[in-house]
Specification:
Strands 1, 2, 3, 4, 5, 6, 7, 8, 9 and 10 form a 10-stranded mixed beta sheet that branches. By secondary structure, the chain is an alpha+beta fold. The longest helix is centred in the first third of the chain and has 13 residues, at 45-57. The protein has 2 helices and 10 strands, in the order ββββαβββαβββ.
Amino acid sequence: MRNTTLVHLEWDGKYLMLHRVKKERDENRDKWVGIGGKFEPGESPEDCALREVREETGLVMKSWAYRGIVTFVSDEWGTEYMHLFHSGDFEGELRDCDEGVLEWVDKNELLALPIWEGDRIFLRLLDSDRPFFSLKLRYQGEKLLEAVLDGKTVPLSF
């Protein structure tokens, strides 16, 4: 079981997204994802989020909101608890990332990019300012089979 963070940095109606194109063996290969990664020993979700944002972007979050937890269940990649954060309060200078290409993407155009099907659900939850949520996403390969939000099954086109 892996614990990871995913941070959506927002500025001027855009999210900073990472196009994962630099690693061959990457469960997110060719997809657009937020900023984040695996916990290191002894880290809290906030510690991991702060470190990953700094390492991948060169930016430092000054404040943030812990928005939810997403449980990914995959027949290929196992189970992952992803701690979801949002921040519009950060500083520093954006730099290149060795895991992919960073780009500010208009929130209205994001859903048209190659992203995980379940990401569409939690991106809508982020934009609705919904309070802390628990979302379970079950995949077979890249196909989303089930989505459960706060214990209730939701349509896959939520």
